[in-house]
Amino acid sequence: MSRTLPAPPDRQARAVRLGPRAVTALVLVSAAGVMAFGWPLLANSASGLAHSHDAPWLFAALLPLLLAVVVATIADTSASAASGGAPGLDAKAIAMLGVLAAAGAAMRPLGAGTAGIEPMFFLMVLAGRVLGPGFGFVLGSVSMFASALLTGGVGPWMPFQMLSMGWVAMGAGLLPGPDRLRGRRELVVIAAYGAVAAVLYGLVMNLQGWPYIGGMGSGVSFVPGDPLPDNLARFLAYCLATSLGWDLPRALVTVVLTLTLGGTLLKALRRATRRAAFDAPATFESAPGADRKPGAEQAPQ
């Protein structure tokens, strides 16, 4: 008979622990994402830029890579459990992933991106903080995929949104002091990260759409084949002129929600992970009477 010991109340339990295989999978999927976002900056004028052509290929590659993160984590879990360590990803963690992804997908239509009002970021950052970088990356990507299906936002931009949101939640899981920092100081750290991540999300996502305006002749247009510093200068000007009006409100909403509701949600998430005992080692005990020989009679009193 197996029994799972709950995590100590003063220590944060994490649903997904990063082992060497999981780290390798995350590096691979992140490297693929960087190449997918950045290749237009190095393209020549005859490359025929259009993310509508490469997005299906990126999406087809992204799903197996996300699965690879999960499989690698399970493999690390099995190796850790075999050596007496704590398990990482199990059925309870997958159930938590489904619940939080559904909640994130349901929150996205609340603002629908209007003027940067996107409360989904608030949940992704806090969940990544509590449940770790590996869980956070998968959660962010799956939540964005589910929300795209829910809102009808399926298009060439979807795999790029999945990658970007995965990075946002993963970064929250990499913040310092996950087992020690608590209270108002932790909320300030998370809010500051959420503000920066919200702006960087818009900056990175602009790389998905910016090459489309190449050839328009404006001072912020992408010019295939131009030197990289020149195109980067135009890209920054493009971001300042177009997306900053959405990025800053998104950052402000994330900060306000984190400072007002973050403490309550952090406690709820941590309580759920402790009760689920994601990272607690399983111990095995003999059932009462299991060591008696079959047919043995009880000694008379």
- Count of alpha and pi helical runs: 9
What's the end-to-end separation, in Å? 29 Å
User: Helical content, roughly?
Assistant: 55-70%
Structural class assignment: mainly alpha
How would you describe this protein?
The protein is an all-alpha fold and 301 residues long. Helices cover 64% and strands 2% of the residues. It is built from 9 helices and 2 strands, in the order E-H-H-H-H-H-H-H-H-H-E. It has helices at 20-38, 51-82, 91-111, 120-131, 133-151, 158-173, 183-209, 228-242, 244-276, and strands spanning 2-4, 282-284. The protein has a two-stranded antiparallel sheet. Helix 2 (51-82) packs parallel to helix 6 (158-173). The radius of gyration is 23 Å and the shape is globular.
Helix/strand layout:
Blueprint: E1 2-4, H1 20-38, H2 51-82, H3 91-111, H4 120-131, H5 133-151, H6 158-173, H7 183-209, H8 228-242, H9 244-276, E2 282-284
Antiparallel strand pairs: 1-2
Helix pairs in contact: 1-2, 2-6, 3-4, 3-5, 4-5, 4-6, 4-7, 4-9, 5-6, 6-7, 7-9
